[in-house]
Write a structure and sequence with these properties.
Blueprint: H1 27-38, H2 58-77, H3 84-95, H4 101-108, H5 112-124, E1 128-132, E2 140-144, H6 146-170, H7 172-183
Antiparallel strand pairs: 1-2
Length: 185
Amino acid sequence: MASGDKPPNVKGERPAMPGPRKAVKGAARTRGAQLRHTMPTVRGSRPPAALAVLEDHLGYFVRRLQIWIFQDFIRSLSRVDLSPAQFSVLVVTNANRGLSQAVLAQTLGIERARLARLLHRLEERGLIQRLQSASDGRRHALQLTPTGRTLLTRAKHLAARHERRLIEKLGGERHDLLLTALRDL
């Protein structure tokens, strides 16, 4: 190899200096490369090692983003001592007064046994009530208590701040694109 020549890049390795990537797979490849350069990581920086085939795995990047989102959301809700799952339960219950546990579990994709434990904790804190349904005595109708509604108002403000941080991290256009795509699944 002559002086000044660059060694051939070993398959799966990144070039030493970041540069524009070839649009080998069209525009989607280019958009993916742009997203990777801003993808949040656990430490806030890009991984120091090559990702090899993971570069083209959507699930890998969705999971990385999900981890960042949940860490930030958990920190946000810690001020009101709520988990993301508890927040979701309070939001949906508040929007659907008298909702049954079965419908709530189905709506949120939470296993019924796990939801029962979660509701028990919220009930112990005085945030939610399980009342016997007027139409079916075997069913519980859920509703927030006044304390639960007050706490939910505070939690919604914290969640809105979290969402603004996410928009700042991704950019408004990417945020809207991801939200639309994932909502439609």
